[in-house]
Amino acid sequence: MSRQGHFLPIVIFAVMLTRGTASAQEAEKPHFHHVHINSVDPAKSIDYYKTMFGAVPVKFRGVSDAVLTDRSFILFTKVDKPAPWKLISAIYHIGWGGVDGPSDFEWRDKKGIEWETTLSTLGTNYYMYAYGPDKELVEIWTGFQHHRFGHIHLFSDDVGIATKWYVDNLLVNGPQRLRPKPPKAPENIPPAQRFQYMWTSAVSTNNGVAINIFATPSEDTLNWWSSDPIDELVATDGRAIDHLAFSYRDIQPVFDRMKSNGVEIVDGIKQRDEYKMKSFFVRGPDKMLVEIVEARPIPAGVWD
Q1: Engineered SS bond to 279: which of 75, 217, 267, 293, CB 3.0-4.6 Å?
Q2: pLDDT tens by residue, 104-146
Q3: Structure pTM?
């Protein structure tokens, strides 16, 4: 499913520049805690993120092999057969920063990374997409000008509803102004004019991870990638990237707020012995599985 030459990275960068502060007021804001991957071979996945992105292998809370991205974690569940990975769930990709596009590409290419989209330019910046060991999609984008874990990119059938959900329930930092849904794009629209027909927003966590929300590629407004439109988003559970997790020092108020807001509770607060952490799961927008973890922010949270 190649998207050679698509222009997503500049849009990602543009929406990130519009981030503001959420209107909801509460002392504790969320930190992005982890990406959870269903992996056939967790050891291979850990080596991949260590080699290709400089992530640090850790024994998460002393019980589970994981990697530390420097702001958050990647946790793994071992599965017997490859999990579905086709890009039809709300989780599009995870992303790292880059600095020198040609060097970033050449170095990883020599290491044998599997590319989904090779080195491409957009103005003065570069982007590239690679597959992880379980076919999870990873972007490298030099607009960040760093080599850190930078963002999560999501699909949504209603960008407005999704953005409001994350702001109201997680208390993430949201956009100062949410764009209304654009009209359907004219046929054969020039690439330079496509952005005005793209429905996007962005939110962010207190540890600097951006969550970019794009309208699901469809013919309703604009099919902005070169593959076929996505007919219907499927639940993230059980797929290569299973869910995303956010952390708070105290999750009881978060649970109470979500329950009061009518959020579907998938699994209540409990101790997860396999990861030695307390958490609960909810169903987010677009069938996204979201975990809420009780943890102190990194760096203290690494050693809890």
Answers
A1: 293
A2: 999 999 999 999 999 998 889 999 999 999 999 999 999 999 9
A3: 0.90
Beta bridge partners of 74: 35, 67
Question: Angle of helix 101-111 relative to helix 42-53, nearest 10 degrees?
Answer: 150
Q: Contact at 8 Å (CB) between 36 and 241?
A: yes
Is the per-residue pLDDT at 12 higher than 50?
A: no
- Checking 163-168 for CB contacts under 8 A at 24+ apart, the result is 163/201, 163/203, 163/213, 165/284, 165/285, 166/203, 166/211, 166/213, 166/284, 166/285, 167/22, 167/23, 167/24, 167/203, 168/24, 168/261
Instruction: Report the amino acid identity of residue 192.
Output: A
CB neighbour class for 219 (10 Å; exposed up to 12, middle 13-18, buried from 19): exposed
Tens digit of each residue's pLDDT (9 = 90 or more) over 230-278: 989 999 999 999 999 999 999 999 999 999 999 999 999 999 999 999 9
* Long-range residue pairs from 123-131, CB within 8 A, at least 24 positions apart, any chain: 123/10, 125/9, 125/10, 125/13, 125/101, 126/98, 126/101, 126/102, 127/8, 127/9, 127/98, 127/101, 128/98, 128/101, 128/104, 129/3, 129/93, 130/52
Q: Where do the domains of the chain lie, and which CATH numbers do they carry?
A: 8-302 (3.10.180.10)
Tokens 């309703």 belong to 220
pLDDT over 90, % of the chain: 74
